[in-house]
Design goal:
This protein is mainly beta. The protein has a domain of 106 residues: Jelly Rolls, CATH 2.60.120. It has 2 helices and 11 strands, in the order H-E-H-E-E-E-E-E-E-E-E-E-E. The strands form 3 sheets. The protein has a 5-stranded antiparallel beta sheet with strand order 1-2-9-4-7. The chain has a 4-stranded mixed beta sheet with strand order 8-5-6-11, with no helix packed on it.
Amino acid sequence: MSQAKENWRDNGVKIIPGTQLDLNTPQTPGMTRAAAINHARAGADKLWAGTVQIEPNAKTAPHHHGKLESIIYVISGRARMRWGEKLEFFADAGPGDFIYVPPFVPHQEINARSDEPVACVVVRSDQETIVVNLDIPSVEQPEEVYWVDPAHPKP
């Protein structure tokens, strides 16, 4: 009995050129999102990956992504994340930093700089486009949160 060989040529590794990303994604004023890896482009079933550019002083409305997990990798610029029931916490991330957003966490992405855009790579744990916008009041002075552990003392 012979088994059919998998067609790795057509069903194997996919290279999606950065110049050919799909802009047909939900957009927010002041931000440009582009899909790189999804089912239609690469055959992915469990992941979505793409880019986002956040213009100076731009920010999203408070929201969460339901059951999805998100990872954001900052390429350039200064990203500020606010999170919590009243967006009462914040932390900044710069080039080379990763941001993890757990499921259902209310958050807001902000360009912390007025003179340059933020460029990021975003990876989500599913193909679904889940964005639940929240009408929540935000605190005036959020608490800055530092990553503190034995290798990273508080600044």
